[in-house]
């Protein structure tokens, strides 16, 4: 699975200059590493959010589950993130970072969008005797 995010469905909506926003749907590939566990890991729910690494402002969310990770394996997971960032000004740092990396491209390579991926894993304990 390749790194990075891909737009899915409709193209990104950037909103008007008077009230800019980014509304989009991204497909993101992640890898879950369960190689150190000798028993399956049962996850009842997984919740993810993505934030700009410079401002720490969240702009995308995803959920998955339930999911069982086989022991001693690496599991690829393809997630669909709802990207929804609104701001009142074009000079908002997070909006600028998103726009420069993901907006309409000019000549050359766009700058990287450095992000933080936060994940919450929910595990339901089992009682077996």
Describe the SSE topology.
Elements: E1 5-7, E2 21-33, E3 41-52, E4 58-64, E5 67-69, E6 74-86, H1 93-102, E7 115-123
Antiparallel strand pairs: 1-2, 2-6, 3-4, 3-5, 3-7, 4-6
Overview of this protein structure:
The chain has one domain (5-123): Immunoglobulin-like (Sandwich), CATH 2.60.40. Strand 3 (41-52) and strand 4 form a beta hairpin. The longest helix is centred in the C-terminal third of the chain and has 10 residues, at 93-102. The model has no long low-confidence stretch (mean pLDDT 90). It has 129 residues and is mainly beta. It is built from one helix and seven strands, in the order ββββββαβ. Strands 1, 2, 3, 4, 5, 6 and 7 form a seven-stranded antiparallel beta sheet that branches. The relative contact order is 0.26. The N and C termini lie far apart (40 Å).
List keywords for this structure.
129 residues; Immunoglobulin-like; 7-stranded antiparallel beta sheet
Order of helices and strands: EEEEEEHE
CATH class: Mainly Beta
Report the biggest beta sheet as strand number plus sense, adding barrel if it closes: 7 strands, antiparallel
How many angstroms does the end-to-end distance come to? 40 Å
What's the number of structural domains? 1
Overall shape: it is: elongated
CATH architecture: Sandwich
Query: Which consecutive residue ranges, at least 5 long each, have pLDDT under 50?
Result: none
Brief digest:
This protein is mostly beta strands and 129 residues long. The protein is elongated.
């Amino acid at each position: 699975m390749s790194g990075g995010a891909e737009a899915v469905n409709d193209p990104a909506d950037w909103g008007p200059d008077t009230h800019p926003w980014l509304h989009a749907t991204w497909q993101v590939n992640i890898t879950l590493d369960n190689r150190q566990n000798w028993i399956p890991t049962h996850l009842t729910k997984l919740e993810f959010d993505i934030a700009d690494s410079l401002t720490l402002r969240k702009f995308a969310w995803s959920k998955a589950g339930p999911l069982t990770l086989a022991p001693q394996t690496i599991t690829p997971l393809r997630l669909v993130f709802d990207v929804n960032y609104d701001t009142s000004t074009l000079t908002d740092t997070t909006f600028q970072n998103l726009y420069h990396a993901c907006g309409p491209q000019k000549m050359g390579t766009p700058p990287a969008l450095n992000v933080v991926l936060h994940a919450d894993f929910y595990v339901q304990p089992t009682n077996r005797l």
